[in-house]
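#help-structures
NK: newbie question, is this the right format to request a structure? protein is DNA ligase
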Amino acid sequence: MSVPSTIQKQATDLRQQLDKHSYNYYVLDAPTIPDSEYDRLMRELEGLETQYPELITPDSPTQRVGGQALSEFAEFIHRQPMLSLNNAFSEEELNDFDRRIREKLNLNEIEYTAEPKIDGLAISLHYEKGSLVAAATRGDGTQGEDVTHNIRTIKIIPLRLQGNDYPDYLEVRGEVYMPLAQFHAYNQQQQQKGERVFANPRNAAAGSLRQLDPRITASRPLSMTCYGTGIVEGGELPDNYSDIVDCLKRWGLPTSAYFQVVQTAKGCWNYYENLHKQRAKMPFDIDGVVYKVNSTKLREIMGFVSRAPRWALAHKMPAQEVMTEVLAIDVQVGRTGSLTPVARLAPVAVGGVTVTNATLHNQDEIDRKDIRVGDTVIVRRAGDVIPEVVATVLEKRPANTQAFILPTQCPVCGSAVVRLADEAVARCEGSLNCPAQRKQAIQHFASRKAMNIDGLGEKLVEQLVDANLIKSPADLYSLTSEQLATLERMGKKSADNIINALTESKQTTLARFLYALGIRNAGENTARTLSSFFGDLLPIQQASEAELQKVPDVGEVVAQHIYHFFRQPHNQQVITQLLQAGIHWTVTPPLATTSPPTVTHGLAGKTFVLTGTLTQMSREEASETLLKLGAKVSGSVSKKTDYVVAGDNAGSKLDKAQALGVMVIDETAFLELLK
C-alpha cells in the first residue's frame, strides 16, 4: 500500500532526530535528551516501519539490531591498500624520521598531527551519497573481510552522514575497539555466567566484530575512532589532514579527542611524553602514538616505502614490566623440528592480561640472560602483545639452581637433536616421523596456500593423528568416508565433503605442492621461483646445491635446506606415495634449461632487481622474461646489480640503489630495454 506523505515526513523527521541524538550521545558525549525520550522516539519509528515496511531504509536507526547469521564472510578487495606503519621506539628514531622528511622536502620545519595508536582492529567504512554501503577489515592490506552487517550494529558509527557537503563516495578508515570500562564489565558478566572471558580488549574487539551472527556483535560494547580516509570520489577533501578530521567530525564520524597538530619533532616528542603520562587513565588501550605529516600535498611528494607511507610513523610505548617466578622450563617441538624453550611462570598480570608462560627463544637467549628454574624474572609484553622475559633478578636467585641446557634428544620422539654451527635454533632430526612435527606438517600441507584441502583444519588433523589414522600427508589420500564418519562431530555428509576436497586437491600446481611439503625457509615465493626455474619436480629433487643456488633468491642456506630435504629417504618415500595417490600438475618448460635467444641488447648476464608495483606485467612475469633473455634476477640490491626496475611505490631497494649509484629505470624504460 502507498505511504501517505504525512507519514513519510514523520518517519524522516524521526530518523533525523534519532541520528542527531545518537551523534550527541556517542560522538560528542553530550546527550541533550534522557534515554527514556530516545527510546520513545525509537519505538515511534519502529511502529511506523512495522505498519509501513516500505519506509524501512538501510540507514534507519532501527536497522542496527543485526540480521540473520552469515555462513561465512565475503572477501573484500581494497581499491586502495590499507598499509601498515613503520615503527619507532626512541626519541632518536623519531628525530631520524623527521630529518628524512625535512631533507626530502627541503624544509626546515614540518607540521605534524599526533594521535593515540589505539589497540584494536583496523576497519574501512564506505559511504555512497552519504549512506553506509560497505565495511571491511584490513585483512592483509589488500584483501579483507566484508563485515558490513556487523559494523551497522555499532551505534557510534553513523549509518548516514550528517550535512550535505561530503563527497559522493567516501572511504573512512579507523580502529574498532572495546573501551576498557565496558571490557571489564563484559568480562565480569561472562564470569558470573560461567562463560569464556576475553584475554584483552583487542581480542574482544576482533572477536566481536568477526561474529557470523550480527546480533552477537550488536550485544558487544564496541566503539570506533576514525584516523583517515581512502578512496574519495565526486568531491574533494581539504589539503590538511587536521581539516579533514574536522570534516569527519562534522559529518558525524567519531574522531579522537586526543588529536593534536604539533610542530617539529620536538612537538611530537612532547605529545608522546604527555600521552604516556595519561596512558593508565585513558578509556581505551593504546600501544603508542601515530605521527603524520599534516599536509596531504607533502605526503604525495614523500610517497611510500614497501608497505608503509614515508610520511607517517608509529611511535611505540614501552611495555609494562612486572616480576614473577620461573616455575619450570619446558621444550616445545615445532613443525620444522625447532626446539623452543618455554618458561612456565607463576601467573602475573601484565598490561591487563594474565601471563603464565613466555618463550625463551633458544639456548643462546637462555645463556645470555642466565635464566634458570626458580629464578625471579622481569616479564614484559613486547608491543603489548607477546610476553617476554627481559632479565633475571640475580639477587633473588635461590641457592643450588642449575643452568638449563636443551636436551640432546627430542622430548617427543627421542630422535637426535642437532644445532648447526651457523644457526641459533636446535632441531629434531625426526622430520615427519616425529609426532610433534607430524600434526603441524599435515596442517601446513592441507592449508589454504598449500594444497587447499577445504575442511581439513587443525582439530580434525589432531583427531586423525591421535586416532592413528594418518602418520604423514600421504596417508590423507588413503582415508575413507567410513573412517572419517567415526570421528567426533563428523557425520557422513561432512566425511564425504572431506573426501571430495581431498580428491579436488590432487589437481594442483608444482609451486603449491613444493610449498605444502614444508621445506624449511622455502616459502610461497621460493616455491614459485623453483617451479618456474625447473618446470617439474624431478629436476629439483636431483639438483645439487650449486644448481639450486642458480635459482633467483635462493641463497646458500636455502639451497642447503632444499638439497638435504630431498636426500632424506623418508621424505622421498612420502613424496612417492603422494604422487602415487594421484597428485599432479601441469609441467611447464624449465627456465633453467631454456636456451636464451641471441641477444643484441646486452641483457645476457646482467643482474636485475625488481621493486614496487609494475602495471604492464606482474613482477613474476618480468622475472621469467628476464631469465629467458639470459639475465639474472636478484631479490637484493648490491654493487653487482646492473639495473633496478622501480615500479609504483618502490621501497627501500630503490633507496639502496640510489645510495650505491646503481642504474634505476622505470617501467617504461624497462619495457623499451626488453624490446
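mod (FA): yep, format's fine, and the C-alpha cells are attached above. Confidence is low (pLDDT under 50) at residues 594-600.
NK: thank you!
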